[in-house]
Amino acid sequence: MNYQRTVQIDAETLGAALEQLERRHPQMKSILRDDSGQIRRAHQIFVNGEQVRKPALDTPLKETDRVEFLTAIAGG
């Protein structure tokens, strides 16, 4: 992603936004989705600063919404 912090996407749902992101940056698909195509559990998703507890691909988005992905990192 060339170290971009933000990407402008116009989409009506979270799933459509992910699809657009993956078309622009194909490497993101394996990072954000599991083998069944669902969002990996390691990612916490926020829309306008509010955590989406059970994010679904059909989560509606408005034109002014800001979606953020935070990834849980474990170590040992």
Q: Can you offer a commentary on this structure?
A:
Strand 1 and strand 2 form a beta hairpin. The model has no long low-confidence stretch (mean pLDDT 87). The protein is built from 2 helices and 3 strands. With 76 residues, it is an alpha+beta fold. A 3-stranded antiparallel sheet has the order 2-1-3, with no helix packed on it.
- Uncertain spans, ≥5 residues at pLDDT below 50? none
Mean pLDDT: 87
Query: DSSP strand (E) fraction?
Result: 15-25%
Distance between the termini: 28 Å
Question: Count of DSSP helices?
Answer: 2
Give, in order, the helices and strands: HHEEE
Gyration radius (Cα, Å) is 12 Å
Number of strands: 3
Largest sheet: 3 strands, antiparallel
Structural class: alpha+beta
